[in-house]
Write a structure and sequence with these properties.
single chain; alpha/beta; 693 residues; eight-stranded mixed barrel
Amino acid sequence: MPEFLNRLRNCRLCWTLTRYVFLLILVIESVILLPSAYNFRANTLIVLERTAMSAVRAAGRIDTAHFDQRILAERLVGLHGLSGIVGAGIAINDGTVRMLFGETPFDEAVSPATIIRKPGTITRSSAADGARRDIAWTDAPAGGLVTFMVRIDSSGVNAELAAFILRIAGLVAILVVFVTVGTMFLMDRFVLAPIIRLRDSMLGAGADPDNATRYRVELAARDELADVLFAHNALLQDMADSKRLDRANAEERARFLVRHDPLTGLPNRDYFLETLRHALEHRNSGHAMVHAFVLNFSGFSAINDALGQHVGDQTLIHVGKTLSELVRQQRFVARIGGDEFAIIDQSSDGPTPAALLAERILGVVEKPLVLEGKIIRLRSRLGIACAQAENDTVPEQLLHDAQVALNLIRADNDAKVRYRFYSAEMMQAVVHRQDTERELVEALRSGQLHLFYQPKIVVAESGMGVGVSSCEALIRWKHPSRGWVSPGEFIPVAESSELIFEIGEWVLQEACAQVGRWRDAGLVPPRVAVNIAARQFQDVALPDLVYQTVTRAGIEPDALELEITETAAMSNVTLSINVISSLRKIGVRLSIDDFGTGYSSLSYLRQFEVDSIKIDKSFIDDVTEDRNAASVCDAIIRLGHSLGKKIIAEGVETEAQLEFLRRRQCDEAQGFLFARPMPAEDLTKILERSLAA
């Protein structure tokens, strides 16, 4: 019971409904009470009238034969004060008042004659305060008409009416109390309790949606509220089913993400290793070999830099879909990170089928791709490792071997090598490369790196030691124990790591500083050409670095020439055009290096705002013996001049080669015929002799 009362006390809905029920009952009882009070008053007055009239009639019973008005008057006087009569009078049939006593009934405006003319009727009149009531009627007690006029004391009627009203009001109050309590009880039982259960159910289900069905509301009746509760229970069931489905989907998604790449949907590295382990454990005589392929792309980061991350992502999705289409029974493809994909092949029983598969993979993924109106050409490479049946190979090692083979392709930077099989000798090369990288870091810190300069000679002048138009800055490394280390050994190591950026910045700063030193010494400094590595050229921060370096050295921008390899320029034409345009605004000169060894497109070449083109040494070597090489060189010179470019030949070592170039009107030449790369001090002496001459 206390809980019930507490629930009712705190139920705003119950109090609102009860208040309106109370007001409604009050209005209804008021409507009923008004006519009841009127009827009560009227009936009470009628009782008084009848009592008074009965007393008067009893007093008026006189034998007709002995009728005496005097006796009648005496009897009436004896009624004074009885039956509420406080005054009376009689009048004969002609309207003459014969006798009055006590308070005079009626006023002079009411004539007994008027009353006599209405025999059988009762004439009534009440005082304004209701304390007196006059009645009159006509009788014939002795054969003649006699009018009786009586004044009754009705002052008690108001008191009785008030008591009646109070009695009715008390009954109404008791009724209201019972109705209110009953209403609230019924409200609690049939409305409040279900609503509270509904509220508690909703709050509980909201706090614990995973177990929403625990908060179902039991249905006791079939009414509108029960329909709401039924719908609520159905909603809880739907919520539980939805949460269960969402949880199942989330768990499935989580399991998928644990084993798959979220971008391409391909299996990830862990899933790949798990599958590779299974393949290695279930090798049989029919498929004794398991090959692991690792694929990535040359200069892929340039796509993100030039076209945006979303285009790079779409490219990876396309590659993943393309590789998936190649997957058949006994093959498995995964994305193991960045732009690196891996494939398990159990169908190749030797290196030849594996090589054919590698060529198929490379051919498919390198097909031109059009995204957002841009043509994207990927340059891919593959590292391949094989696990023989007799070898106890773990999957991590097999994947590592394939990556070693891939990294050696990237380190060698040989565009002709597109896939390579792993061998034990490769590991030795990797260890040596790692040692070289570590020592190269120390060389950069301790000043073991030096710049040598190789002059470029104006072909028309061609004299030894004269006509130095420019020179090329070439980096050299003097190792404390190994002596001079070949650039062909450490440059690929630097290009395959982040060191190429630090070394490239050092070369750029040192070359510009040397131009400043020659100028400060009163010499006419030649233009210095600096080679820009492919990864450095693809760095969008290169123009800012060049500008800051030239400004800090205090030299004219055109005293610096940047040489960009043809392969680097063509790897991402859009990016190359933007970078070249930014460098041109600085004022430095630009040159395409190793021209003819890459895959230039003439339509793109004309868009490159470069100053000169360098013919690769491989063509110059054979110009005097190979007609095709001579034709290529001649075509390059003609093409370059038609585009308004200066032509420079590198690797000139014989007079015959020089004469060939002179006849074709090549602009400049560089090679051992004129001078080998030399320290800045030696070139300074040449500049001094030129100035003296």
